[in-house]
Structure formats: C-alpha cells, structure tokens
Amino acid sequence: MSPLAPPAHVRGVTTLTLDAPAHRNALSAGLVAALADALDGCAADDSVRAVVLTHTGTTFCAGADLRAPADPHDFVALMRRIVALPKPVVARVTGHVRAGGLGLLAACDISVAGPGATFALTESRLGLAPAVISMPLLPRIDPRAAARYYLTGERFDAAEAARIGLVTLAAEDVDDALVPVLDGLRRASPQGLAESKALVTATVLQSFDQHADDLIARSARLFASDEAREGMTAFLERRDPAWAL
Q1: Is residue 43 within 8 Å of residue 86, measured between CB atoms?
Q2: Which of 30, 117, 179, 219 is deepest in the core (most CB within 10 A)?
Q3: Structure confidence by residue, pLDDT tens digits, 78-88
Q4: Is the whole model's pTM more than 0.85, yes or no?
C-alpha cells in the first residue's frame, strides 16, 4: 500500500495526501520517493495551478522514520523540490508535526493549521539537531523562537506557529480558511505564480545551495553517534534516555 494517496485534482488544484497514519506519516524512503514523484507530475501538468499537501490521521508528519529512514540526500532533494516547484504548495495541517515534518511544512509556500495541530522540534532530546531542515526553517521563522524551540524541544500550538512564522495562518476551520487562498491562486496566471514564487523563495533556495552538503554531513555524523543511538533507542522503548535528569 502506497504511503501517499492517489492525487485528487479539482479546478486546477491537486491535493497530495500523506497516507501512512499507522506510522504517523513518518518520512520513510517510500514516502519521500512517492511524494517526490507526485510533485514532479504536478510540475509537468499544465492543468495544475497549485498543490495542497495534507494528511490522513492525527499526525501530519512525525519526522524521520527511525525504523526505515529516508536517505538524507533524498529528503533534502524533496524539500528543495517543494521550494523550487514553479507552482505554489499549500500545507493543510490538522494534526501533529514533529522534527523533520517541520522541514516539510516550512518548504511549503502557504500553510494553514487547525486547532488540533501541535508542533515540536524534538531532535535535541534524541541526541540530534534540526540540521537539514534548517534550510527551509531558519529563513522563515523568528530567530528567538528558533533558538527556544531548537534547544528545548517544547511543544507549541497553531497560534504560536503562526506567531513565529512557521505557518501562515491558524484557523478554527482549516477548509474555510483555505477557500480565499485557493481562490486567489486559481485567479493568478501560471507565469505570475511562478515568477512571484521565485521572488519569495530566493533566500530559501540560496540556503539549500550554500549549506546542503555540510548539513547532510552533520546529520549523518549525529545519527551515527552513541548519544543518538541511545536517544533513538530510548524513544522506541518509551523510556528516558541515559542523560535525562
């Protein structure tokens, strides 16, 4: 069974749905590959004006699949593909977002989160760091908020995510909030959307081009460390890691 539901296309908007709720839509090699292929299809289809990225289940994306993680090069390529896609990508979030899932979210151009959404950068608690996801995250969010949530791993809600710039809008009814957004995208010309998106994503793409290799290497080093092995084992065993006070 594919971790991505079949694309749904309505009036120029294609919806891609992360569909591995039993695994909390974690970033497995299969999910990353399926989403990359679907985005390539959207890029090549002239009938697609915009893409909505959403999910089944109570979790938008739990970050890396610790049992079968995607290759970091492939995940970085996926985030960059979203940023560079010549069509807007809109995230529809009604569930939890953790760790690498925040990188996926930050790569999107517009995002709306509902009252059931929560967010956390949990890497520091696992002996890791939000390395590769910093490329789309740090250009988007408030620096003081980044320092706090990178270091503490605290959970925060949709209102706070909107305040710090992680999401565009927090809304009680996500679908109602998306109506004017999608209407606006449908009214825009393909050229206008592509060129306008290029302006607002230039800094994010620059971050990928300058830092991808170093951050991938850092991520690999951290994942191979003794502390990370202990952190991930403790997480899977549902216990505190050895360093917890």
Answers
A1: yes
A2: 117
A3: 999 999 999 99
A4: yes
